[in-house]
């Protein structure tokens, strides 16, 4: 079974005002900033890729949360002359994901996350 749910939240800050970028379908418009996400599932693992242009490692946090720690939570912050941008994504996995053994690396503006699957 694959992930149970994916939620995103994107906030841009210009000066004092906060604006949430949400198109008519209710999903955050992360593509407006060039942010891309993909996920593959094999028998052994989940492989997630987050393309985060303009972000760097110092602004990225990856944690597990929720009931039985089955939710992967990514927060990426970026600051520049125009203000700041925060990208927030939560992915809740089924019980077969071993979120205590996550491997992650950030290179070429892409965060690669590998989550082993528990063998039945």
UniProtKB/TrEMBL annotation:
SUPFAM superfamilies: HSP20-like chaperones. InterPro entries: HSP20-like_chaperone. CDD domains: ACD_sHsps-like (cd06464). This is SHSP domain-containing protein.
